[in-house]
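TOKENISED FOLD:
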Amino acid sequence: MKNEGIEGTERFVSPERGRGLRALRHFSVGELLFSCPAYSYVLTVNERGAHCEHCFTRREDLFKCGKCKQAYYCNVECQRGDWPMHKLECMAMCAYGENWCPSETVRLVARIIMKQRVTTERTLSEKVLLLKEFESHLDKMDSEKDEIVQADIAALHHFYSKHISHRFLFFFFWAVSIFNDVLSRVVFFFLSVALMNHSCSPNVIVTYKGTAAEVRAVQEINPGEEIFNSYIDLLYPTEDRKERLLESYFFTCQCTECTTKSKDKAKMEIRKLSLPPEPEEIQSMVRYAKNIIEEFRRAKHYKNILHIFPSELLEMCELSQEKMGAIFGDTNVYMLHMMYQAMGVCLYMQDWDGAMSYGEKIVQPYSVHYPAYSLNVASMYLKLGRLYLGLERKTQGVKALKKALAIMEVAHGKEHHYVAEVKREIEEQK
């Protein structure tokens, strides 16, 4: 089978990192390196009825699948286009009715398996990396991950089929858990994107248009240079990032940012006190911060607690900030993490002034801690801009939206519909 490759890049073997992708020509900041269609994808259950299962168009006049009555489509063409993947779910949903409840991960793996069965040629999403080329790393998986995967395998057997190799399933659940990209409406699985190695100072960024991933340069890239994406949230200090990468991706990062630790001092800002805290006190507070972040994550995950106890979650955020604030400065990343959580709860409670107050504290430190053209920074400016406009602070709102737009035009490209939407919001204020 011929490896078509992606124009302007080539797959190569790096002595330090294994497989990778490097540039064959110069790429400017904001330039599109390549677009990669998803190998497989599913619409999340919460969005069913609002978006077409095939093209994800949002509209009110969608019609139901005549069999399961749970999948919705724009027209017959979209239904036919989705049928090769939907038919497995359709039969399961008809059989289980209201008891059909697999996770998005299980649904995605089922579709990948179905696609493997019906596809004999290299797909467009496998230009530089075949699905079968993924390294399993099964021997490196700890007992907790093993239990999660085993539970997903059991769910797949229960809801779909009992005639698939156990090891085959184990590998696919691992691959999906590592490489899928989750947006608010769709769960994707990309292949060519996964070939790029990680750096904590990436020179490209991945965004999405429809069911495709688009990879654009966020630094100047010269011929012969390796193309690096980021696998994780880059807000946190070096040791935290290394721990996450080793736990989830099984490697120790040796990128320039991890070697120099150039941003760690700012990210770990300590409050200026007459008597500076001892190193042991700082480490103790870091442990507390990590524990409270994990506790908060679990609280939001189990039983959708945000919808039930928002005021309790907000109090939890405020108390943790008060405790950490005895040692950490306001721009410390652990403080920022809890401020961000608190902002989210305020938005849910429609406390616009509270959300705005947190956003104002977060946005400038984010701009320092994150790399240039970070979507996390753009998202914060976008939220803040819309809050300002909603509170009739037009000048500040437009200024914040323009800062978001400057990042988005590089990350998403100037023709993306998200960019057009923000431009329209700015124009409406004139």
Observations:
- Residues 39-189 form a domain with the Annexin V; domain 1 fold (CATH 1.10.220.160).
- DSSP finds 16 helices and twelve strands in the chain.
